[in-house]
Write a sequence for this structure.
């Protein structure tokens, strides 16, 4: 449904997104996780055809975001980080307007408005002015406008930001329900949120993908496997087989002749054994470093923010 | 085209739910009415003065012309008031959308950029047409009490609306380059005033440059409309001026996406 290939976006000299590539399949609910300023909103803006990419290609439903943007805009529903709400309009009138913009046939508009009002729990505020609503209700109106034309793909940028805990739970539940019949890409800087709603996670930091895996896979690599990266000066043909021969090693991948990724059993602490082997065989250690840790660092960054929220709630 | 309708409709609704439009309309009507009644009292003064010779004048086939002495100056005055009023109407078109971050709704909807520009332009034109309609009570007054020719009145209004369209197109362009409504109003007003005063230096010089300046000036093309002549050259000038300004607006909005 969504194919992103080598996407780069520069704001002047600064690159907001660097060489991003990922695919999202039909019916998936994918979380886009990353700290503030990681490039999540930029990527979503490109996918929603609001911004053109500097380099690379993004395709939605087989349409190019640059060449065939009108086709894409018919099939996506987009909730930007700041919900695009006309503060002076009534909720119902605003949703009618959004439906008209999205080419919902005139005779279907009342039904579509009723449906999203119901889904987003907005029926009681239908005749109120948007500007007078609380942040939570405004966020829900934002979500409602993205769903009004029943799009195949929903792109939601931080859908729960600024909501109180009860509202967060409600919105998460709504997104879960929507996920049963829609393809959803949602961004967040809160790890537990993504783990609750999404089947797959793309972690992005400083414009680059740091990890991309299903939740189970990610958890496994986070908790269990320890990964070491070994770079040698004198590459030899038997390095891989000898490393695989070490105790507690699960797998060894080679990246070129001189770089190896060693995956070990949990808590194995293989550094010593690998170093000893390398010295014995005179490979010449150029670099030996644990890999999973950097991923953990990012998670730590992300999870600490959620902790702050939790503390604030208490 | 449907999108143009939805955008224009929302825009109109938004105009009437904000206080700005009521204040602007009131200011417009008060200024216009003041000037209109000044003209009217001047006309009645002259009528009184020439009353003793009325029979003589009528015999020689002449009469006081209500068109030339009331309607034309009143509409000319209105064109000047519109110059001040229109930037206040157009300033919010794009500046407000950007400031409130609502523009992303339009950009992520299956709507072409030119439809957005057209919707904004038509809604402003609708508002100005509404204001002009309110002001037409004055003409009704003249028609009720005198015997003006209706043709020049209609063509005068058509010309004014076209001229207003040009001011609006400039105002919409001004609004597209900035996020700040005050800046948009100042810029729109500056452009409109410049296009209007362009013919002032040209009046003294009938040389090549003078003729060109007079031709470019927005005001000079209104004269024939006020006289009751709809000249295709003037019509083409106004329409192409609007089209060009709206095209520039489109280009500005398109290029801003790249930054």
């Amino acid at each position: 449904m969504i194919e992103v290939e080598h996407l780069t976006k520069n704001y002047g000299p600064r690159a907001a997104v660097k060489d991003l590539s990922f695919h999202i399949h039909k019916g998936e609910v994918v979380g886009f996780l990353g700290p503030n300023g990681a490039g999540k909103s930029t990527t979503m803006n490109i996918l929603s055809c609001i911004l053109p990419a500097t380099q690379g290609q993004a395709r939605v439903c087989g349409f190019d975001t640059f060449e065939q943007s009108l086709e894409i805009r018919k099939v996506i529903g987009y909730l930007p980080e700041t919900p695009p709400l006309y503060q002076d309009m009534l909720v119902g009138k605003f949703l009618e307007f959004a439906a008209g913009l999205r080419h919902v046939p005139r005779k279907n508009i009342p039904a579509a408005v009723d449906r999203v009002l119901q889904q987003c729990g907005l029926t009681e505020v239908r005749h109120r002015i948007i500007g007078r609503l609380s942040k939570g209700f405004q966020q829900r109106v934002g979500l409602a406008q993205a769903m009004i034309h029943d799009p195949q793909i929903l792109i939601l940028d931080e859908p729960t930001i600024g909501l109180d805990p009860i509202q967060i739970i409600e919105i998460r539940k709504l997104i879960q329900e929507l996920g049963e019949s829609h393809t959803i890409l949602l961004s967040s800087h809160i790890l537990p949120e993504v783990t609750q709603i999404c089947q797959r996670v793309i972690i992005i930091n400083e414009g680059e993908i740091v990890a991309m895996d299903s939740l189970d896979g990610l958890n496994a690599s986070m908790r269990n496997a320890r990964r070491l990266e070994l770079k040698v000066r004198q590459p030899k043909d038997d390095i891989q087989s000898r490393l695989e021969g070490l105790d507690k090693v699960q797998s060894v991948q080679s990246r070129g002749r001189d770089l190896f990724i060693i995956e070990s059993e949990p808590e194995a602490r293989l550094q010593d054994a690998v170093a000893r082997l390398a010295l014995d065989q005179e490979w010449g250690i150029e670099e030996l470093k644990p890999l999973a840790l950097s991923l953990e660092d990012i998670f730590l960054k992300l999870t600490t923010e959620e902790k702050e929220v939790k503390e604030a709630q208490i | 085209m449907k999108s143009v309708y939805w955008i224009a409709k929302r825009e109109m609704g938004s105009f009437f739910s904000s206080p700005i439009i009521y204040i602007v309309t009131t200011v417009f009507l008060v200024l216009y009415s003041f000037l209109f009644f000044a003209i009217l009292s001047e006309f009645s003064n002259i009528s009184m003065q020439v009353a003793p010779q009325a029979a003589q004048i009528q015999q020689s086939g002449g009469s006081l012309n209500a068109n030339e002495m009331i309607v034309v100056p009143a509409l000319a005055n209105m064109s000047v008031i519109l110059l001040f009023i229109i930037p206040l109407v157009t300033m919010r078109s794009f500046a407000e959308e950007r400031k409130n971050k609502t523009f992303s709704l339009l950009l992520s909807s299956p709507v072409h950029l030119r439809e957005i520009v057209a919707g904004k332009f038509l809604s402003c034109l609708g508002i100005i047409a509404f204001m002009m309609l309110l002001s037409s009570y004055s003409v009704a007054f003249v028609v009720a009490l005198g015997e003006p020719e209706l043709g020049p009145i209609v063509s005068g209004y058509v010309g004014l609306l076209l001229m207003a369209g040009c001011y609006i197109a400039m105002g919409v362009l001004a609004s597209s380059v900035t996020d700040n409504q005050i800046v948009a109003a100042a810029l729109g007003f500056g452009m409109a005033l410049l296009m209007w005063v362009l013919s002032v230096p040209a009046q003294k010089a009938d040389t090549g440059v003078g003729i060109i300046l007079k031709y470019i000036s927005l005001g000079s093309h209104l004269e024939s409309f006020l006289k009751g002549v709809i000249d295709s050259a003037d019509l083409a000038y106004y329409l192409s001026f609007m089209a060009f300004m709206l095209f520039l607006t489109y280009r500005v909005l398109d290029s801003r996406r790249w930054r």
